[in-house]
Specification:
This protein has 201 residues and is mostly beta strands. 0% of the residues lie in helices and 51% in strands. The strands form 3 sheets. The protein has a 7-stranded parallel beta sheet, with no helix packed on it. Strands 3-6-9-12-15-18-20 form a 7-stranded parallel beta sheet, with no helix packed on it. A 6-stranded parallel beta sheet has the order 2-5-8-11-14-17, with no helix packed on it. The radius of gyration is 15 Å and the shape is globular.
């Protein structure tokens, strides 16, 4: 949902009922790209599928994501499948972006399948004032290539704020990365025995 194209939806409460259908796209570019850019309060339900593939590998120069949830927004996934079929590094099914001082960002996974050939969910911590929060209450989160299911990334030397809570569900490997761990405010709660493992760096 792009603010420039649909200003009436910006910061609105939206339920996307997939009704068993599929939304699909192909990323053919080299810049950062999102099939759905969430700048509101979005809930996904309806047991359908949202899928994206990329044709160009841009390495670490840009991301490709099925859904990007921006600062000041929320995303709740109730069921269905959100997937990125790959074709590039930095390919995420869900990308959670704080990016400055635009407000807190929160993603809640209650069910469904979140999957990518690279990393299924990235939390990109890039704000010293706004919280980047992920809560997993159910569902399956995985990488089809054995990569990390969740990438919790503190990207710079500043005291960025992030929270991750895994209560239930089937979750693959979790990668907790902090550029400078002593400067980052992190709240980490992992309760699910189904998590394959946690790597902290």
């Amino acid at each position: 949902l792009y603010q420039e194209e649909l200003p009436q939806y910006y910061n609105k409460v939206i339920t996307l009922d997939l009704n068993g259908k599929t939304i699909s796209g192909t990323d053919t570019g080299t810049a950062s790209y999102a099939l759905i850019e969430n700048k509101g309060n979005l809930t996904i339900t309806g047991n359908g599928k949202i899928t994206l593939s990329a044709t160009n590998n841009r390495g670490w120069n840009a991301y490709s994501s099925t859904i990007s949830t921006q600062a000041g927004s929320t995303l709740t996934v109730e069921n269905g499948t959100i997937e990125h079929l790959g074709g590039t590094d930095m390919a995420y099914a869900i990308d959670v972006l704080t990016n400055g001082n635009g407000g807190n960002v929160a993603v809640t996974i209650n069910g469904g399948t979140i999957v990518s050939a690279y990393r299924a969910i990235r939390q990109f911590l890039n704000s010293s004032t706004c919280l980047n929060e992920l809560v997993v209450n159910g569902g399956t989160i995985e990488s089809t290539t054995g990569n990390y299911a969740i990438f919790f990334q503190n990207a710079n030397k500043y005291a960025n704020k992030g929270s991750i809570e895994i209560n239930d569900g089937t979750v693959g490997k979790v990668y907790l990365y902090s550029y400078l761990s002593d400067s980052t405010e992190l709240d980490i709660e992992i309760h699910a025995a189904a998590v394959e493992g946690v790597t902290a760096y």
